[in-house]
Amino acid sequence: xxxxxxxxxxxxxxxxxxxxxxxxxxxxxxxxxxxxxxxxxxxxxxxxxxxxxxxxxxxxxxxxxxxxxxxxxxxxxxxxxxxxxxxxxxxxxxxxxxxxxxxxxxxxxxxxxxxxxxxxxxxxxxxxxxxxxxxxxxxxxxxxxxxxxxxxxxxxxxxxxxxxxxxxxxxxxxxxxxxxxxxxxxxxxxxxxxxxxxxxxxxxxxxxxxxxxxxxxxxxxxxxxxxxxxxxxxxxxxxxxxxxxxxxxxxxxxxxxxxxxxxxxxxxxxxxxxxxxxxxxxxxxxxxxxxxxxxxxxxxxxxxxxxxxxxxxxxxxxxxxxxxxxxxxxxxxxxxxxxxxxxxxxxxxxxxxxxxxxxxxxxxxxxxxxxxxxxxxxxxxxxxxxxxxxxxxxxxxxxxxxxxxxxxxxxxxxxxxxxxxxxxxxxxxxxxxxxxxxxxxxxxxxxxxxxxxxxxxxxxxxxxxxxxxxxxxxxxxxxxxxxxxxxxxxxxxxxxxxxxxxxxxxxxxxxxxxxxxxxxxxxxxxxxxxxxxxxxxxxxxxxxxxxxxxxxxxxxxxxxxxxxxxxxxxxxxxxxxxxxxxxxxxxxxxxxxxxxxx
DNA sequence: GCGGATCAC
DNA sequence: TATGGTGATCCGC
Length: 598
Description:
This protein is of the alpha+beta class. 49% of the residues lie in helices and 14% in strands.
């Protein structure tokens, strides 16, 4: 989720690890830009793993300040996280990784020091040419919004449990927290934090198990609103979206800010959830801006070159989508902490980084970003799919209690492969390359891949090569196993038989849903009878929902049955949310009939 | 094409 | 009781 920054957990502070200044918020990579990662060199481990860590110098991503976390006692959080972590295998692995980063940084600095003035001048000249080229492509004619739901999962849960609004609450379990509400954030509890550490920070913390069907339903409702302002909006994840509202602004003689305010009100009306919005001349800046006045706020970056350059000048590089913890440390080591400095040090950047990384950094310094749907390169597959980007891989992985028995591991591989095969079937794809992923009990990750002679999609086809990869790694002790398919292709002719097989499963699934709905309805019956007003509302929502469903199904004509089933389930749960009560079995039956008719 | 690593949510 | 799952991309082989 956008607002809930992923924090790869705690890391020991290296000499450059102090850089967590200011607020960090999440910045999701804009699809076509993709993450531009600094080069990864293979370096010996341990070069910089000298000093004994203590909590004072312990820099944890969990202490980075976020919306709603300004008054957190960061020293206390640091100390608690350190105390809870320091003896774990996970912590040891974090130290190992940090040592690698430190070594890489040292190498980079050495390289920087060896550059002559003449060389630097030449690189700067090349950078200036690149900057001029980027500048020439600057487009300030579009108005972009980035909408980001506030504490999304937690807020959805609070709809069902209003009593939790005033209490610290987290969605997740002892293993991992996905979202924390704002009450919990006051204690330093945040996403991507292990539950047992969160409980130490806040003993009264309420834990709620994630229910992704609810979040998906809420997400569908928000998308119904987004569609009004940009029918081609790009949903980054369940809780955020990019919208090009240029046409809407023109058609209604409105400013971007006015549209943003209207959109926020619309989302709240449809879902009783709040979101924050950024308004800017490109998608990247809109994303950065959506973070500035969170929660339930909006921020504008004016569409002029001067305003953009001013906005970006003092912006911490970490705020830029695609610059994460490691890139931040690396750039900090070169004396770069703001986007303005990315431009000042353009010669150094051109000299030290790959052409693609340098272009990305310079673009960030200029405040550039996507201004057209589907990415500025227009690289989407032209197969009539519109803005839907074909996936490159599909995977399934699981963490479990430490495992060393080869029999257990082969059983696990079998399970995962079956799961993957089912997912590939429902997606209608087959794969030529298979990858096995193992995480050993000391948290080191290994991947092993094979490319086969042809494409495969059944468990029977995929299990033997996966087992072969696995056996080559034995003996070992692991805590995670994963399987992945890549080099994908659409499942061809044979897929029709598959469709027919899936149809049987669909009916069963529908029947199950309807039965479940009946049970729930019985419980909610008393309420329903007392509140005729809500019934009217429900009826109204259902009419709308039928129309919507029909439209969506028309769009999906020819799709796999499983996709239609998923869509139907979405509509049902969405409707339940909108009416704030359980959908009647009769309503479900009618929805199901509509789905079948298509 | 493979494996490690980074990034995002 | 002890730190997730999915997808993408980049780099250097």
